[in-house]
Amino acid sequence: MSGPDAAGDRTARDEASVDLVVAGAGGGLAGALAAAQAGLSVLVVDPDAHFLRGNNTSMSTAMIPGAGSRWQREAGVEDGPQRFLADIEAKTHGTADPALAAALARISAPLVEWLADGVGLPLGLVRDFSYPGHSADRLHTVEGRHGSTLLRHLHERVRASSRADLLTPARLVDVTRDAAGRVDGAVVEDPGGHRETVSTRAVLLATGGHGADRERVARYLPGIAAADYYGGQFARGDGLDIGLAHGGRAAYLDAYQGHAALARRSRTLVGWATVMHGAVMVDAGGRRFGDETSGYSEYAAALAQQPGARGWIVLDGRIRDLCLPFTDFRQTVEAGCLTWADDVEELAARTGCAAAALDEALSGQAAVATGVAARDRFGRTFFEEPLRPPYAAVEVIPALFHTQGGLVVDGHARVLGGDGTPVDGLFASGGAAHGISGHGADGYLAGNGLLPALGLAWQAATTLSTTAAPTATAPPVAVADPPTAAAETARTAPTVPDAR
């Protein structure tokens, strides 16, 4: 089997036998690069010929946590893995897998430094605002703050490597294992249905989650099932299915990242930086309905419960200017999604909101921003400045961005069976792995998507390339699937007590 990559000008060099097959050209490219740098041969396959603009990595804001990085030290930010781990525990109310969370917190700074030094990614520390749940400025990103820049850089490095090849469109449909249970092949299918088995030492499942599978979303994530899906169309649970079929087990299938700031008109991301700089969200009638700084993921479910499942983010010119560094926000502005007005009455008339409700929302914001009140009636304690006319409003709808549950893995990205024994040669990362966001939507921290996507892929390559890779059996992970996940896990693993 051979075929062109996304650029259409290169074919796979020789996919008959490689050290590693990476299924998924998103965060999995970090694993491909790390493996190639270690001298391994790599084949990356992806079913999406347009993955550079169509997968979850490319659609992200490219925020990567790095607790204790050199950028933080240079900026005088005190941080480290333990502080990051404490933030994860607090945001997830102690429900995240502590072993995986600790492992990812520990490698977060080395990961961003490798991306800069080993891959040449031009990263910088985000200092202009803080995302909910992070007690220190630890998010690193690229200019434009958009995942497409990150992914294109990784893709260019893969294309330049003599040890890595990319085959698209091509989908991993299964793995094969030898008599000892070790992975020894990857079954790859082209769009015409032709299948070929690629001989390999290992497979990394970097296929994303299952957000594009509407039936599975309805089963595991009923609270967000009616919302728009804003993620990769090929995130259909392929990695989850393959892992389960080969003895793996699943956990946290009810976990997801939602977002309450998708512009209704353009389906572009408005972004939560608007809120963190002082904007408020109101429902279709102009009434606020909670503390927006609790987090954009859980606020998606809150917005979904409002009349018509829509609302407005109200901001001003200062906030607009502060958010322009985000490519997504600029696209929203350029699409004409901001409705401007010189006063509250005009804004109410232009949005269909009640003027009294809007006035109450802005008065409450101003009271906290000026220090007249310590908190508003929803418990929000911080606004940078009062909103000043002219005001702007952008209509938003809730969205599901990606799922956060999947195959149980250890800190080396190895897929674990029901007894905690690794499935030899099978790794998972990103949405294919069980993640560190706990249950539901409210455990999601900014960067919880890219850190497991890039970090676990990097760990998989490191584990495979290290001759002294750990081989000891890992204990079963003390995590639980939601009750609705029992049908998927019963095939391969005993019931795990609910840890919620």
Automatic annotation (TrEMBL):
Any GO MF annotation of the entry: steroid dehydrogenase activity, acting on the CH-CH group of donors
Q: Which cofactor does it need?
A: FAD
Q: Which superkingdom does the taxonomy of this entry point to?
A: Bacteria
**Entries under InterPro entries matching the protein:** FAD-dep_OxRdtase_2_FAD-bd (IPR003953), FAD-oxidoreductase_2 (IPR050315), FAD/NAD-bd_sf (IPR036188), Succ_DH/fumarate_Rdtase_cat_sf (IPR027477)
Give the matching Pfam families.
FAD_binding_2
Task: Report the Gene3D superfamilies cross-referenced here.
Answer: FAD/NAD(P)-binding domain, Succinate dehydrogenase/fumarate reductase flavoprotein, catalytic domain
Entry keywords, A to Z = FAD, Flavoprotein, Oxidoreductase
Q: Where is this region: Disordered?
A: 474-500
Question: What are the FAD-dependent oxidoreductase 2 FAD-binding domain coordinates in residue numbering?
Answer: 19-438
Q: Which residues cross the membrane?
A: none
Gene Ontology biological process: steroid metabolic process
Q: What is this protein called?
A: FAD-binding protein
From which organism does this entry originate?
A: Streptomyces diacarni
